[in-house]
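Bug #77: duplicate submission created two jobs. Keeping one. Sequence:
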Amino acid sequence: MKKSSILLICSIFAAFYSCNKTSKTIDDPHQGTITVAVDESFKSVSEALTQRYIALNPAAKINLEIKKEDLAFLDLLENKVRVVVMSRDLNEREKKAYKEKIGLELQPARFAADAVIFIVPKNSTRESISMEEIKRELNSDEKNIVFDGTNSSNLNFVAQQIGTTPDKLKFSIISGNKNVLQEISKFPKKVGVIGLNTISRPFDKESEELRNSVKILSVVSDNISYRPEISNIKEMTYPFTRVLYFLTNETYYGLGNGFIRFSCQQLGQIVVEKEGLQPYNIFKREVQMR
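Kept job's structure:
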């Protein structure tokens, strides 16, 4: 065989190998397409983070799917989504399923402190609700506490904080955080439960209108009243402070892990702060000079 023919064959093979290899490259931190599933309670901060990341990486596409927290986790296990945002601790069964199905050690990537808040109509005389009252009402047939739905992060987290599971609680439902805000005035005896991030954007007109449409209750624990304010969330003294974290099924450093790293580092943490939440990895420090 002539030398030129051998070179031609080698060139064709190299080109084929190169194309085949490229076709197997799913994504990397700067390009590709993935889906991130988040509960509606975290929609605002998740949108802000994905929009900022895509602005910095124009070849990347992150589809945000709004789904109840429990269902989002199931989709992660089935590889239907690449990343999810969680707020509650996984139980032992879920931890085992994650390790077996994903093949990774559980490594929560914490990025923000949020809160579950309790609201009443604007004209209500009520100013606070105690931990004991929350527990009592959630075991009452009156169903005076209103959640945004079953399998939701708000219901999951409240149940976890009072030491029980959602299936053992009694409550009413108005589907969606914003709907709870907008409809609670029709039920003067009810107490609504929403995620802080739904109304936390400090300079957003819609968030401001929603905040002003209801009264946010303090939560009383051990005879001390706590407001869901950033100072109490930072110190985690507000009883329903929760830490938001990412989980992924990505076993390599691709777009999912790139997005997670961005969200947990400085630029992403600035986005979290602008959302009116407490950044998990950036804290203001005071230095005393002597």
